[in-house]
Amino acid sequence: MFAGAKSSYEESKFVILGVPFDKTSSFRVGSYQGPDAIRNASFCFEPYMMEYGLSLSDIGIHDKGNLQDYENVKDLGKDLEQAISKILDDGKVPIVLGGEHSISYFTVSGFKNKFEKIDVIVLDAHLDYRDEYEGNKYSHATPVRRISELDFVENLVVGGVRSMSKEESQCDDISYITADNFDSVELSNIFDENNPIYLSIDMDLLDPSYAPGVGNPEPFGVEPRKIKKLIKRLSHLIVGMDIVETNPKFDVGEITSNLAARFVYELLGAKQSKKNKKWY
User: Is pLDDT above 80 for 253?
Assistant: First the structure.
């Protein structure tokens, strides 16, 4: 259970769902352990968030546990999409703990019956815009391409990029911001507040010195405080979030899991403290 997730499903505003899947991982397997590692790490911090003047117990969080183990990504995708759709239909904000990045496409797809238009921010070291990888169109290397094909996704941008294939580099139909040029203020200004936002955070976005426990670490990454600032600025628009690619098998002192859990804290605290427009 995630720290502070003491509300019943019916009483909750936020629902945490774990997806322990990494069957398409191509380098360092182990992100299937991510959801429970993030949950364990969530107890590292004080439940009272001084910046927002509230405690996790004040927020209304329910932890639904993990989806079952799946042998292939398509079987997973159907159930995950339905689970997200149900959470949204019940008027709640889903927060998904991965698991590899392939799950993000199915999570976003679950929003199609709730919103006519949605914007998506993907924070990732890699562009993840391949059409397929190792013969799989639903790989951890393809979620951005698949998300871009969803009709109700109006704006899509990838932030923190510092690695892509030659083929991806020749695509001119995807917007991205490199890690060298990453600025949370400029990124948040891309969106004009006409649409709700879905946020996907691949933990390899961060420099490996901050998050070594990931499947595909990439040097010269983003500093965590910039992500904290971005979440705070856009929290009133964020209607769902996933945090993927936490890999405890390669973590050091659980710092990657701790940081992933703290990003969840940040979204919960920032959304709960906002008194302006809400999208749930």
Answer: yes
For residue 133, the model assigns a pLDDT of 82
Q: H/E element holding 104?
A: helix 103-109
Phi, psi of 131 (to 5 degrees): -75, -35
| 266 DSSP 8-state letter | H
CA distances from 83 to 79, 98, 231 (A): 6, 14, 24
The stretch 96-101 carries a mean pLDDT of 93
Q: Is residue 278 situated within a structural domain?
A: no
> What is the C-alpha to C-alpha distance for residues 203 and 181, in angstroms, rounded to an integer?
18
For residues 174 and 148, the answer to whether their CB atoms sit within 8 Å is yes
Domain count within the chain? 1
Q: Decide if 4 contacts 55 (C-beta within 8 A).
A: yes
Closest Cα partner for 36 from 2, 81, 85, 70? 2
* Strands (DSSP E) found in the chain: 14-19, 48-49, 54-55, 61-66, 93-98, 118-123, 153-161, 175-178, 197-202, 238-244
For residues 86 and 222, give the distance between their C-alpha atoms in angstroms, rounded to a whole number: 34
Cα–Cα distance between 127 and 88 in angstroms, integer? 28
**Angstrom distances, CA of residue 120 to CA of 18, 75, 117, 154:** 20, 24, 10, 8
Amino acid at 195: N
For residue 178, is it within any domain?
yes
Overall pTM > 0.90: yes
What is the identity of the amino acid at 212? P
Please check whether residue 260 lies inside any domain of the structure: yes
Residue 6 lies inside a defined structural domain of this protein: no
Q: Show the domain range for 171.
A: 14-273
What is the Cα–Cα distance from 117 to 220, expressed in whole angstroms?
34
In angstroms, rounded to a whole number, what is the distance separating the alpha carbons of residues 31 and 100? 6
Report how far apart, in Å, the C-alpha atoms of 33 and of each of 20, 30, 41, 255 are. Answer: 6, 6, 12, 15
